[in-house]
Each structure stands twice: as structure tokens, then as C-alpha cells.
Specification:
2 domains, transcription, 3 strands, DNA-bd_dom_put_sf, MerR_fam, Tscrpt_reg_MerR_DNA-bd, MerR family DNA-binding transcriptional regulator, Multidrug-efflux Transporter Regulator, Chain: A, Domain 2
Length: 125
């Protein structure tokens, strides 16, 4: 079975070992131990990748934990509905953010065009 040291995961994901230990402290990762050395399995590596991706997408650690718990248990009808609700909420939030980003980008383009026009006007005078 493939295993990883904390330093290997930190280097691969470009995060600190402290961050990885924090995710362990809050119950998102569950490495084995060999004395004082943490031994991470492939499952932990995948979870770490999902944690970091979830954070980039705006998921809270509580939401990530909830998704992990739903995944880890025998998924009942109610759990699957809850997972769908969480996904729908996150998709709606991300769509709002996309619209907001598009609006800001348009405003920045207009401001940039005005600045360039003003520079052109002052250079021709």
C-alpha cells in the first residue's frame, strides 16, 4: 500500500505541514502512526486534495466535513438529498460570484478605456 509522509504531502500540494496537522486536528484527515511519525494513506491524500479544492471553491471546513461524512456513511435517501441541497446551494453561490466577477471585469475595462483615452488626449495636446 502506498503511503506518504507529511512533508511529502506538504511539498506536493504546496502547503505547510502545519495546515495538514490542522486538518487532522479538526477530523478531516486520519493518518496512521509509526511512533511519532504520521503515515498518510492514498485515501488521506485524496481527501487533502478535495479539502484544498473545496476551500478554493469557497466551501467551509464544516461543509467539507459534512460532505465527507455523507460519503463515508451508507448513503441513505435523506443523506443524498442533503448532499444535493449542499451542492445546489454552492452552485447558486458560485453562479452569483461569476456574475459579480463579470460585472467588475466590465467596469474595469471601461475604466481602463477611459484612462487610455485621457492619456491619449493629454499626449496629443
Amino acid at each position: 500500500m502506498e503511503t506518504f509522509k507529511i512533508s511529502e504531502l506538504a511539498k506536493e500540494f504546496d502547503i505547510t505541514t502545519r495546515s495538514i496537522r490542522f486538518y487532522e486536528d479538526v477530523g478531516l484527515l486520519h493518518p496512521g502512526r509509526n511512533g511519532n511519525t504520521r503515515i498518510y494513506k492514498r485515501r488521506d491524500k485524496i481527501r487533502l486534495k478535495l479539502i484544498l479544492r473545496g476551500k478554493r471553491l469557497g466551501f467551509s471546513l464544516a461543509e467539507i466535513r459534512e460532505l465527507f461524512e455523507l460519503y463515508d456513511t451508507n448513503q441513505s435517501h435523506a443523506q443524498l438529498h442533503e448532499m444535493l441541497r449542499i451542492i445546489d446551494d454552492k452552485q447558486a453561490m458560485l453562479q452569483r460570484q461569476i456574475r459579480d466577477i463579470d460585472a467588475v471585469m466590465q467596469e474595469l475595462e471601461l475604466a481602463k478605456a477611459r484612462c487610455e483615452q485621457a492619456l491619449n488626449n493629454t499626449e496629443t495636446q
